[in-house]
Design goal:
The protein contains 4 helices and 5 strands; from the N terminus they run βααααββββ. With 103 residues, the chain is α+β, with helices and mostly antiparallel strands.
């Protein structure tokens, strides 16, 4: 089954702005691109069995973010929050934050 990762244009624009402001380094951009490539190549189910899944500390969120997941982007608390829409196997990036802020 095909898995597609969708990054909303406004999230992409904000991430690029944060990158230019130095909130993220180029390695984070490369990591996100690699993460997208891996999920689309393997499918989300197989990705969840991978070393990358464990390395990024991919986990379910709770409370207001129940049904969403988070991966660790860097040591300073950067996170990418996403949700999986199972009926279409679409992964929708919800937020990319430089400081572990889930709000």
């Amino acid at each position: 089954m095909i898995t597609k990762v969708i990054v909303n244009k406004s999230i992409e624009t904000r991430f690029n702005r944060d990158l230019k402001q130095g909130l993220f380094n180029a390695e984070v951009r490369d990591l996100i691109e690699y993460w997208i490539t891996e999920i689309e190549g393997l499918g989300h189910e197989e990705y969840c069995k991978s070393e990358l899944f464990r390395m990024l500390n991919d986990h379910d969120l709770k409370a207001d973010r129940q049904g969403q997941r988070s991966i660790t982007l860097d040591q300073s608390g950067g996170r990418l929050i996403y949700s999986v829409i199972k009926n279409a196997i679409v992964i929708k990036v919800i937020k990319i934050t430089s400081n572990h802020d889930y709000s």
